[in-house]
Amino acid sequence: MAGDLRALGRSVRLIAAAAAALLLAGRASAQTPQNAAAYDALVDQYARGDATGAVTQLSTWTPAAITNPSRERPRFMAADRQRAAAMLHTDLAYAFELTRATADASFHIGAARRIIGMMKAGGRGDERTQLFERRWLVVIAGLYTAVGRLQQAELFVRDGLSEYPRDAMLHVARGCIREMDAALMVTDVRNGAQAPRATRLLEAAAADYRRALAYDGTLASAHLHLGWVRFLGHDDRSIAEFESALEHAGDDTARYLARLFLGAVAERQNRLEDARREFEAALTLGPGYQTAFIALGRAEEALGHSARARELAQQYAALGEKSEDPWWDYHLGGLDQSTLRWLRREARSQ
C-alpha cells in the first residue's frame, strides 16, 4: 500500500499536466451530467486502490458533468465510499492547483467538503469522521498555503478551529500561514520598513506552535516549526525543539528535517564536525534529497575536505530519478504530505 501511495503522489504531477492539456483542449471527451453510474464506478475504483486511474478519468469531466452526481450519489454511499469520494475530489483538486487552474481546484475542494458534510449529517459524525474532517482541513489549508493563497488557507483553518478549537494540527496550520506570510514579506521587502510586521507575524506563528504543543506535546511538526522560527531569530532554544521533533517523529520525513535543521544550527555555531554528522544522518534518511547533498558538501568543504565535497556533488549528479525533497514542501508552507497519505489510506479502508 505504501508503494501505491507514493506512486499516486508522483502521478499527481502527471495528472496535473494532463489536466492542463484537457483545459486547453476544451475537454472534448468530457462526460455527460447523467453519468451517475460512471461516477459511482470511479469512486469504487479509487477505493479499490487504483487512485491514479480514477483521478485521471475524473479530470476529463467538466464541472457541469460532475455537479449532479457529486451532490447526489454520495448521499447513498456507505461511509468508506464517502471517504473515497471525498479524496477522489481532493486529489484532483491538488493536481489542478499545481497547474494554477484555481477555479477547477476550488470546485473539487467544494465537492469534497460537501461530501464530508454529508458524512456528518448522515449520523456518522463519530470520532473517526471528525478526525478525517480535521485532517482534511489541515491538508487543504496546507495546499493553499503552499501556493500562496493565504486568505483561502486562513478561511479553512478558521472554520476548523471554530469547531475543533483544541486541534493541535490546525494550530500548526495557522502558524504556517503566518510563517509563509512573513517569508513572502521578507522576500518582497525593498526598504526595510516592513520588517517589523514580518517579525510580528513570526511571533504569532510561534504562539500558534506553542499552543499546538500545549494540546499535543508529541506533535513533531509543531516542534519542527517552532524550532525553525526560533532558528530564524538566532534563538538557541531551537536545538531543543529539533531534538524533540526527532524524538517524536513518526516517519523518516520528520526525522530527515530534524537532522537537517540540527545540522544548520551546528553549522551556524561553527561546530562543523557536529554539522557534518547531522547532515550525514539526514542523507542516510533521504539518500536522494538534494538539500542533504548540498548541506553535507558545504560542511565538508568548510572542514577542508574538498575532494569529499566534489564526490558528493558527483554522486548527486549521477542519481537517476531525483527524489522530491521534503524541504521544499516545508519551505513552501508546510504542506503535510504525511497527513495527505493518512487521508488516502482512510479512503481505502473499511
Overall description:
The chain has 350 residues and is mostly helical. The chain contains 18 helices and no strands. Among the domains are: 125 residues, no CATH class; 111 residues, Tetratricopeptide repeat domain (Serine Threonine Protein Phosphatase 5, Tetratricopeptide repeat, Alpha Horseshoe), CATH 1.25.40.10. The longest helix is centred in the first third of the chain and has 23 residues. The two termini are 15 Å apart. The chain is 77% helix and 0% strand.
State the total count of DSSP E strands: 0
Spatial extent as radius of gyration: 22 Å
What portion of the residues fall into strands of 2 or more residues? Answer: under 5%
Largest sheet: none
Binned, the helix content reads over 70%
Number of distinct helices: 18
The computed structural class is mainly alpha
Tertiary shape: globular
- The overall average pLDDT, rounded, is 88
Poorly predicted residue ranges: 1-8, 20-26, 28-33
Outline of the structure:
The chain is mainly α. The chain has helices spanning 2-24, 36-48, 51-58, 63-72, 79-98, 102-124, 127-146, 150-163, 168-188, 195-215, 220-232, 238-248, 252-268, 272-285, 290-302, 306-318, 326-331, 337-346.
